[in-house]
Fold this protein.
Amino acid sequence: MTDYIGYIAGFLVSFALVPQIIRVYKLKSAREISVLYNSGMLLGLFLWLAYGIILGLVPIIVWNIIGAILAALLLLAKLKYGR
Amino acid sequence: MTDYIGYIAGFLVSFALVPQIIRVYKLKSAREISVLYNSGMLLGLFLWLAYGIILGLVPIIVWNIIGAILAALLLLAKLKYGR
């Protein structure tokens, strides 16, 4: 039951990144994306993943893998489209 | 020990939102911010908070309270600066 809360939570939070990614690729502009903080976020997501693995929390593991992939896409967009 | 991983993780991920907020307020432009998804993210953060409270995971509770405040600030910026 609690896991379901985690799954829905992770879905909402992680997919909040998707339109950001789409807009950046569509506008071909990543002016409002910061490489430093995006990299920090990516590292943070890996740490949450480690946390989830250690405590065996499946929703956290799942959504931080997905989140890390999305954050990486945003970082790639920044490198591709510059400022 | 595991909690420390969670605290660092949450710090990195939550503060990835801060420069985004600063840029939006500084540029007075929220064009790349989506109200729908930002609201969804805010709801997701509340659900992660509930998940953390149920399972007694302090780093998750702490960072989702902070994350929700930051997401709310971003939403306010969007409402204030429009597109």
